[in-house]
């Protein structure tokens, strides 16, 4: 019987693993052609300053609509793109598209709206990144201050010397740097004083139960107070209710992003959102 069980277990795992690999292979091959097939798009989620009480910019978030597989979440395809190296051409497409969209907002408003894009740690290590950003910024004719790069703690701690010099080069150009998902990494906090950063994005996992969980409130409070001392801006992610917004404001958080203020919007709707916000 043991033998039988063993064989069943073995069969079960192989079929599960085959399904898992099949899905990965399918997605990876499809992703290879996603750019040329026009299956990618960006949605833009508005960011709101609690201090200035106004729209200050948008985060660009990647969407992949496959003709047969439907909408695939970045949570599934970004890790895949990172493993296969596809995140390099994908990331280039994101930068180019987001900057072109941001440039088109110049005709809507003189407001210094920022566009934030997510940089994968793989992109961060790519030797040509700075040259790429320089040439795309030049082509867009936008001031560098309008582009914000979101990086995670892990991108910085892997090779601190490289990170420090790259972040210095970004700062010299006037680019803005935000630490995404702040508080979820395992790194020491010493990088906060060592690296040229502008903003901490308080991870949504601390915001979710902010009203009911005293520990989450203590953590958010500590992040805000530390950011303040280090002269870094703070923005809370995943703000879904007016009550969360009010508490964050009370705690001294500078800005919010989340479904409460606005969901991620296709480019055309983001333009309408800008116009509507400027009128009120
Ligand atoms: P992230 O950069 O931390 O983005 C925030 C995620 O939270 C987004 O998920 C956004 O749609 C979602 N979100 C925003 N407001 C709320 C809210 O009020 N409640 C909840 N529950 N969620 C909210 P999304 O778009 O699925 O992206 C997931 C992750 O995929 C991003 O996390 C980012 O790490 C990655 N990603 C997205 N676009 C890109 C990209 O262009 N390049 C790279 N390298 N990564 C990307
Ligand atoms: Mg982000
Ligand atoms: Mg985040
Ligand atoms: Mg995240």
From TrEMBL:
It comes from the Bacteria. The lineage of its organism: Bacteria, Pseudomonadati, Pseudomonadota, Gammaproteobacteria, Alteromonadales. The chain holds residues 692 to 971 of 971 of the full protein. Residues 24-278 form the EAL domain. This is cyclic-guanylate-specific phosphodiesterase. It is found in: Membrane.
């Amino acid at each position: 019987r043991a033998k039988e069980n063993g064989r069943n277990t073995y069969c079960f795992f192989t079929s599960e693993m085959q399904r898992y690999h099949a899905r990965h292979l399918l997605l990876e091959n499809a992703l290879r052609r996603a750019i040329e097939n026009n299956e990618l798009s960006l949605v833009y989620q508005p960011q709101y300053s609690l201090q200035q009480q106004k729209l200050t910019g948008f985060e660009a978030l990647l969407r992949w609509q496959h003709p047969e597989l439907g909408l695939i979440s970045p949570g599934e395809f970004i890790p895949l793109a990172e493993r296969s190296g596809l995140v390099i051409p994908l990331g280039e497409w994101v930068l180019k598209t987001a900057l072109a969209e941001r440039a088109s907002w110049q005709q809507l408003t003189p407001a210094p709206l920022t566009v934030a894009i997510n940089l994968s740690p793989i992109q961060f290590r790519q030797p040509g990144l700075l040259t790429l950003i320089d040439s795309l910024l030049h082509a867009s004719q936008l001031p560098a201050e309008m582009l914000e790069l979101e990086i995670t703690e892990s991108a910085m701690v892997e090779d601190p010397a490289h990170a420090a010099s790259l972040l210095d080069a970004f700062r010299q150009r006037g680019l803005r740097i935000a630490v995404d998902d702040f508080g979820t990494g395992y790194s020491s906090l010493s990088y906060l004083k060592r690296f040229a950063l502008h903003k901490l994005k308080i991870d949504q996992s601390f915001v979710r139960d902010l009203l009911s969980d005293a520990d989450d409130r203590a953590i958010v409070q500590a992040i805000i107070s530390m950011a303040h001392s280090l002269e870094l801006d703070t923005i809370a992610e995943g703000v879904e209710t007016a009550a969360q917004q009010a508490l964050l404001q009370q705690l001294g958080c500078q800005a919010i992003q989340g479904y409460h203020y606005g969901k991620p919007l296709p480019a055309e709707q983001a333009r309408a959102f800008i116009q509507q916000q400027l009128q009120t």
